[in-house]
Here is the input.
Amino acid sequence: FKVTRRAEWRPRGGGGDNRTGVGPRSSSSSSSSFQAKVPVVDALCALFPEHYETRRQAKNDCRKKLVMVNGRVTRCAGAVDVGDEVVVVVRETIATDVSAHLPDSAKKVLRTLKVKHEDDHLAVIVKPQGFGTASAGGGYDNANAFLPHLLKPTGASTEESRGAMHRPRPCHRLDKATGGLLVCAKTSRAMETICDDFRDRKVRKKYFAVIRGLLPRDAGTLDTPLDGKPSTTEYVVEHKFKRNGEQHAYVTLTPKTGRNQQIRRHLAGAGCPIVGDRIRCPGAKEEGGEMLLWACKVGFRHPITGEQIELESDPPEHFYIAK
Here is the structure.
């Protein structure tokens, strides 16, 4: 359901801010130096100070069409005048069994999904291989579609979290062929903070891969630029072995930048494609099977408590092909 908070825009008396005319509803109706119109973002920060700590948060709600002025949705470029009514819609999660309407095939998938960590603000799930992170369609072929059915409703207060989102959402993406740990947010504040941390490379990620071929050293860095941008992946060779007469290895990898398919492209560029990569590993398309790349570790600062969260997920048994 939706929680709506309202406030009227009125001029304030002597205690007001005469530079902008901002302020909550007041019994005073006269101010000689009151500036009539102010940007809607400034108005939101003044009318709802406990809801918007920064102008960026107010802009985000405008972009999401959660702000109305006089009954009409307004965007970031809007303005608020004397006497206008400003409405902010706060989305909250419905605490009901939202899985009841799922088709039987989707219910079977839901029972296989695992949650590694969950609290009122965020969750970390294990995304299966061959399963997208999100999809523009309405099917149940991606993790995002199952989050409202898999996770519990948030119990966080609006003041603490800036409100629950309409539904939980992933904070980043894993390729469809890549399985492993996926960080998801339940509240607006968690979503904003975690996405910022991913963008600023503050989230620690580690992957496990099975490669065909041998890297030049047992530990090193792959730093070939990708898409015309600096790109860095650190690696450690954990185990070398032969399979069908060819050299293979188990490798753990830490991407220091976030280019599209960075790990897959760096390894293929070094002559050691990931087993099962149907684009870059010769014969993989004909052989079939899953690509052997797994997001095995993730670490980040909790957006509300500041606690350091470190989680691990072991790859499935079919990754261990050494014999």
Summary: Residues 229 and 259 are 8 Å apart (CA to CA). The helical segments are 40-47, 55-63, 104-112, 143-150, 158-161, 188-199, 262-269, 284-287. The first helix runs from residue 40 to 47.
